[in-house]
TrEMBL record:
One of its GO terms (molecular function) is hydrolase activity. It comes from Candolleomyces aberdarensis. The keyword Nucleotide-binding applies. Residues 754-835 form the UvrD-like helicase C-terminal domain. InterPro entries: DNA_helicase_UvrD-like_C (IPR014017), P-loop_NTPase (IPR027417), TPR-like_helical_dom_sf (IPR011990), TRANK1 (IPR039904), UvrD-like_ATP-bd (IPR014016). This is UvrD-like helicase ATP-binding domain-containing protein. The keyword ATP-binding applies.
Length: 1319
């Protein structure tokens, strides 16, 4: 009886534990509950606790919670490790053992835990998950092999097959398929064995040995899992999951929640513990709706969440599952009553389960609508569209299981065997009406759905903006979970000289890094399909291109890549390699670029290549996935030669054919273009099955028939003739920069977003207007007419379609790829505006296939422009900025009323513009430097308006621009400003590097002393050594000025003297010989007197005889006269010789001032005219202030500060305006002599210029440094003058590029704060 008592657990311990945790409002309360357990006295108790924790469904992750912390944690983990199977004869039981199940739980839990791990731990968790998943199957195979057994595969049960509505014949087919999948799942794969570090057994002994090794590995994984669980950051994150849980009975207020940790970047998360078996997928609309009512109506939020909880538990009452669409629609859509006037709309969906072993019913919630606003026709259309997925899909979604228990009304979700592919049924689906088309497209294609997890629910309740992972299709899920490197090939919305001669794989084996003529001519036809018969001509063009490039001293992208690869081969790859590499738009790269990118990744299973060769519009690219796959395989083979015993799994290619961006109308139009490419140029792009749309949609509209010169007035102006404005989700696409500039000149810049085809890559819009694509094409009409060959039933024409000629029609191929990119930017509407003859062939082809509709003069023109809110413009601005479309982002932010973001965008545009300038000669080099400095100054302005990390980023960008400007001619002034900006950005290594380059060693040493730990150690040591040599060199240079080595005085360069100074100890005999020309000699007794002597200058030599000064100087070229007393009688004897008393800090201080003066002289060369005028005015003011006969101001005069601080800037402004007026007058006079029209306008222009000139001269006289307003110290008068200067500057046209705005802003800011003169 005593033994039974010791083995017995407290009654209802698990229910009590769950009840206590449900009331926990903090992590401390959770810890107190876990610490309060009574001890476990026997192994039977331990096993019983583990089994109950494993089986409980009341609180998910309760097992992990108890294993991680508390009085039972160590006891439970120790028993699991102690009882872990050690011998092969226990392997048969391991598959279904407690240990196996807990391992499975922990592997998933830790991998998906919302906690930040270091890289090593992340790699371990990923690899351990693979071990836990595959080891049991491999173990079973090993034991079967050892015992001479064949593998026996149990049938996979079909869920609730007794009540399934699917027929018996179909059920057998599914069972057969399931058995086949199970055999595949447990069959051995060589890559699995290699990854598990075991060999394919050849004998029984090897099989047993492998089994023991695998068990040891799992035991080690188990031990490390427990170590991770019991780390503070892990158990705290686990305990946080049990704080403030929402219950069906009580809605906990947001204040009860602790701070929520950001979600980990994992794909799947557990459902909130209060939910039932039904998995809930909510749209982003629902997410926004719940957050909105959380702020406005917390009572309604409680009701909606309660309703969702009821649905998750299968409580499908009449109020909760009322059919919304008509009974004759094959697929039902439901509504659930929320309040008397509110309905929640949802569908029952059937999707693959997390582990991919079956399909499972889920609830997909679209939105919550006011009852009066529910459009039943819309949901009829929704039902028709969903029924297109096939009969089996519809049957699975409408099937309902029986409740688990008699009398229970809760319906559990059903599961089914995986269905490879259902037959789509479109026979009875009516065409979407125009009024419902956009909404259906938004809900089924553009809308993103999120699994309603505990983290998501918490973030809604506490109004925390957290990024959550979207639900994905089975195809996308397969790509995401693929554990090896792969390629993803799709069309849009799923997801050639240089390319061959210089950028191909073969170019790497040539010393010149490009193919010779013989090699080029021997390439296969597929390698360069378009010009396969003209390779001699192409190679001649290539040689001419190379010669032209050499003469201009320029490089192209292949030169860059080859140079980097050569450096990698010579010195290795600098820095640490990355673990995972994701490359999108890979088709815009060359194969040598792929080799470069692949070399940066240490993980051979961490490479992800995605793209669409139909969108290959990058100049010089001939990329194809058919070339990429074997190329990567050969690279891996070369790398594996150094890694014996390793094998690389075959690179898998995923092909996506479902479009998740555009509707069927746009996809069909684009598919016709793809059909042309693959028909005439079968090797141009990779082969894919035709793209499929999720929903139908309106056909693109082709506008033609108007006058080509005035067509823009028809579509880009309103009825009143005023310019229309496109919205934030609309875009006008043109061919190139020239076409964009022309259109902007015609319609103005405020019409909306205008992008070139290159700029539109990677972007998408609701509506796209493709403007004059064919008119601006370099391909002529006769070449475009080749597309007419694909019209199935052509009309009889006098001019039939030309026969295809590979050489003549080569340009059409690239044009079609550009056209495909343009079409696929659109989500909802595509409008093609082109009235040229060259547009007719494609228009005829599309219309013959029923892919476009026409609109001409006299037809009703649909409304094109759509209004947008400020928030929508801001969203578009951020999207454009992220995609580096900075000028368009500036426009979007201006429309959103966000001046700061517009300024930042424009600043980035300035940098891009500067980088695009090729410094091929002195003029372009100077222009590039000027533009870089302009961008740098703009970044500094952005930094002044920012804080924290963002401010440092702007300082960094400014520093980079200044540094690049410095490289345009090795300008030390630019390097200095770059160093200062790097220092402000707290990038001290870069700052020290540039301070060293400019020989600003004082600044460099100062940073090293203050931030030694943040400066590269090698650079810091080098700078200190070079600085020492630098100063020593200065001292050694002085020796050439000394009469003898024994008389070495210190030789220093003064800062404010503009001369070289020779310091002499007064202990030495008097010098009869005068100083060297240009050298001033200073005698001293004490080194502390030297600075004062230097500041006094040559006047010290003429000091009064009664002076007690211990320093005497000889001016330039002065010679002691006979009447002059000997030096040793004039100066007291020093206490020590010169070399003993001159201190290093004095030398450093003097050298610093000298170098500062040299730098100032250097910077003087780069000052603008306005800056020089300001400096000159300041010198004049300073002289007048110093002269007591001029400005008789009292000491400490307040006006003196205004006088010296503001007046020079105001005078600079006035002088700049005067210079503008003189120049403008001269230009206007010359113009009037050349042109004899517009006399009135010319007269007005001249009159305004004369008025500005007179006013500037008048203000200049009143502001003159010696004017009466200054002598009277008239602050109010100065304020009035400043206002008049501001008005004068504003009269100058904005295009005059007047460089005075900084001066004016500074002066106005200072004068606005000025008070009356004191004293």
């Amino acid at each position: 009886m005593e033994l039974e008592a010791r083995n017995a657990l407290p009654e209802h311990w698990l229910q009590k534990l769950c009840a206590q945790l449900s009331r926990a409002q903090s992590v401390k309360m959770v810890q107190a509950i876990l610490d309060g357990f009574d001890g476990l006295h026997s192994d039977n108790q331990v096993e019983s606790v583990l089994r109950q924790l494993l089986d409980t469904t009341e609180h998910k992750h309760l097992l992990e919670l108890v294993l991680a912390y508390g009085s039972w944690s160590q006891r439970l983990s120790a028993w699991l490790l102690k009882s872990f199977p050690k011998h092969c004869n226990l392997v048969d039981e391991f598959y279904a053992s407690l240990h196996s199940k807990i391992l499975e739980r922990l592997s998933n839990f830790l991998l998906l835990l919302p906690c930040t791990f270091d890289r090593e731990t992340q790699l371990f968790l990923s690899e351990a998950r693979f071990q836990v998943e595959r080891t049991p199957h491999v173990l079973k195979s090993m034991i079967n092999f050892a015992h001479g057994k064949t593998e026996v595969v149990a049938d996979v049960d079909e869920a609730d097959s007794r009540s399934s509505v699917i027929g018996k014949k179909q059920t057998r087919a599914h069972q057969k398929q399931a058995r086949k999948m199970e055999r595949q799942k447990i069959s051995l794969k060589q890559q699995d064995l290699a990854r598990l570090n075991v060999n394919d057994p050849q004998t029984k002994a090897e099989a047993f040995s492998n089994a023991s090794s695998l068990l040891d590995t799992l035991r080690g994984t188990f031990r490390r899992y427990f170590g991770l669980l019991q780390k503070p950051e892990i158990y705290l994150a686990t305990q946080n999951m049990f704080v403030g849980l929402v219950s069906t009975a009580t809605y906990i207020t947001p204040e009860a929640y602790p701070s929520i940790q950001p979600m980990a970047p994992a794909l799947y998360f557990e459902s909130a513990s209060v939910f039932g078996e039904w998995r809930i997928l909510i749209s982003s609309r629902i997410d926004r709706y719940l957050r909105e009512i959380r702020r406005s109506d917390s009572k309604l939020l409680k009701i909606v969440i309660k309703k969702i909880i009821e649905l998750s538990k299968g409580q499908f009452s009449d109020d909760n599952q009322q059919r919304l669409n008509k009974p004759d629609v094959q697929f039902p859509v439901y509504e659930a009553k929320v309040t008397a006037d509110t309905r929640l709309v949802y569908q029952i969906d059937c999707v693959p389960n997390y582990d991919g072993t079956c399909e499972r019913q889920v609830i997909r919630i679209f939105c919550v609508y006011p009852r009066a606003m529910i459009n039943e026709h819309l949901w009829d259309s929704m039902g028709y569209q969903l029924s297109k997925k096939g009969k089996i899909y519809c049957e699975r979604c409408t099937f309902r299981k029986q409740p688990h228990h008699e009398g229970d009304h809760a319906i559990p979700p059903a599961t089914f065997p995986l269905l490879e592919k259902d037959v789509s049924d479109t026979n009875n689906v009516p065409r979407l009406s125009e009024e419902n088309r956009d909404e259906i497209h938004s809900l089924l294609v553009l809308e993103k759905f999120i699994a309603l997890s505990k983290e998501l629910l918490k973030s809604i309740v506490v109004d925390l903006d957290v990024t959550h992972v979207f639900d994905v299709s089975p195809e996308q899920k397969g790509i995401i979970e693929h554990q090896y490197s792969c390629c993803v090939l799709g069309r849009s919305g799923t997801g050639e000289l240089l390319g061959v001669i210089k950028g191909s794989e073969q170019s790497l084996s040539h010393e010149t890094r490009y193919l010779d003529l013989k090699t080029y001519k021997n390439l296969s036809v597929r390698t360069q399909h378009v010009f396969a018969k003209q390779r001699d001509q192409i190679y001649s063009i290539f040689l001419a291109y190379m010669n032209h490039k050499k003469q201009r001293g320029e490089d192209d992208t292949t030169d860059r890549t080859h140079r980097i690869l050569k450096a990698f081969n010579a010195t290795g790859i600098p820095g640490a390699k990355i673990d995972y590499l994701y490359v999108d738009e890979v088709q815009d790269n060359l194969l040598i670029d792929v080799m470069l990118l692949q070399s940066l990744c240490r993980n051979r299973n961490g490479l992800f290549w995605a793209g669409d060769t139909a969108q290959r519009i990058a100049i010089g690219s001939s990329f194809r996935f058919d070339d990429l796959t074997p190329f990567l395989y050969r690279l891996e083979q070369l790398q594996e030669q150094d890694k014996k015993g390793t094998t690389q799994p075959e690179l898998q290619t995923f092909k996506l054919t479902t479009n998740y961006r555009s509707h069927g109308g746009i996809i069909q139009c684009a598919a016709a273009v793809i059909g042309l490419i693959t028909h005439f140029w079968p090797y141009a792009i990779d082969s894919l099955k035709p793209e499929q749309a999720v929903v139908d949609g309106v056909m693109p509209i082709f506008f033609s028939g108007w006058n080509t010169e005035t067509v823009h007035e028809q579509f880009l102006s309103g009825n009143s003739g005023k310019q229309i404005e496109f919205g934030a989700r609309q875009c006008i696409l043109v061919r190139d920069e020239a076409a964009k500039a022309k259109l902007q000149e015609q319609v103005g810049g405020g019409i909306g977003l205008i992008l070139t085809l290159y700029e539109s890559k990677g972007l998408e819009f609701d509506d796209v207007l493709l403007y004059n694509f064919f008119e601006d094409s370099t391909v002529n009409l006769n070449q475009w007419r080749v597309v007419l060959n694909l019209i199935e039933k052509p009309k009889e024409q006098d001019n039939p379609a030309p026969r295809f000629d590979e050489k003549r029609h080569a340009g059409v191929c690239s044009e079609l790829q550009f056209l495909y990119v343009a079409i696929t930017r659109s989500r909802k509407n595509l409008w093609i505006v082109d009235c040229s003859d060259k547009a007719e062939p494609m228009k005829m082809l599309w219309q013959s296939k029923g892919h476009t509709q026409s609109c001409g003069p006299g037809d009703k023109v649909p409304q094109l422009a759509a209004s947008s809110t400020s928030e929508e413009w801001a969203t578009t601005g951020y999207t454009l900025f992220t995609n580096r479309r900075y000028l368009q982002a500036k426009h979007a932010f201006e429309r959103a009323g966000r001046a700061r973001e517009a300024k930042i965008s424009y600043t980035h545009h300035l940098r891009d513009t500067a980088h695009s300038i090729q410094p091929s000669n002195k003029e372009t080099t100077s222009t590039k430097r000027k533009e870089l400095c302009f961008a740098a100054e703009s970044f500094l302005e952005c930094a002044r308006d920012s804080k924290g990390k963002q401010q440092r980023v702007f300082f960094h960008n400014a520093a980079e621009c200044f540094e690049n400007a410095g490289s345009c001619g090795d300008n030390m002034g630019d390097y200095q400003r770059a160093a200062e900006a790097y220092e402000n950005a707290k990038e001290y290594t870069a700052a020290v590097r540039l301070y060293k380059k400019t020989e600003m060693f004082d600044e460099a040493v100062h940073i090293i002393q203050k931030h030694r730990q943040e400066v590269d150690e090698e650079l810091a040591n080098d700078v200190q050594e070079v600085a020492t040599r630098f100063y020593s060199k200065k001292f050694r240079k002085a020796k050439t000025l000394i009469e003898s080595v024994e008389e070495q005085p210190e030789y220093l360069e003064g800062t404010h003297l503009d001369e070289t100074v020779q310091l002499r100890s007064s202990e030495k005999p008097n010098f009869q010989k005068p100083p060297t020309e240009g050298i001033r000699r200073v005698f001293f007794k004490n080194p502390d007197d030297v600075p004062s002597a230097l500041s006094v200058g040559a006047q010290t030599a003429n000091a009064d005889s009664g002076s007690n000064s211990t320093v005497k100087t000889q001016g330039l070229g002065d010679t002691p006269t006979g009447t002059e007393q000997p030096v040793d009688q004039q100066v007291e004897q020093p206490a020590a010789i010169l070399t003993d008393i001159v201190r290093k800090d004095l030398a450093l201080r003097l050298l610093y001032h000298h170098r500062q003066r040299v730098r100032n002289k250097e910077l003087e060369k780069y000052k603008t005219t306005t800056q020089k005028t300001c400096d000159s005015s300041f010198e004049t003011c300073l002289k007048l202030v110093a002269d007591p006969n001029e400005m008789q101001w009292t000491r400490g005069s307040y006006y003196k500060k205004l006088y010296l601080g503001l007046v020079p800037h105001l005078l600079a402004c006035v002088k700049a305006v005067e210079s503008y007026a003189l120049s403008a007058w001269s230009e206007a006079r010359d113009q009037s002599r050349k042109e004899k029209q517009d006399y009135d306008d010319m007269y007005r222009t001249k009159s305004e210029i004369i008025a500005i000139l007179k006013e500037s001269r008048k203000l200049g006289s009143r502001l003159d440094p010696s004017s009466e307003v200054h002598r009277k110290r008239d602050v109010e008068g100065l304020k009035q003058l400043a206002c008049e200067v501001e008005q004068l500057v504003n009269r100058v046209p904005s295009g005059a590029d007047l460089d005075v705005h900084f001066n004016l802003q500074l002066a106005m800011k200072g004068i606005s704060n000025a008070g009356p003169e004191r004293g």
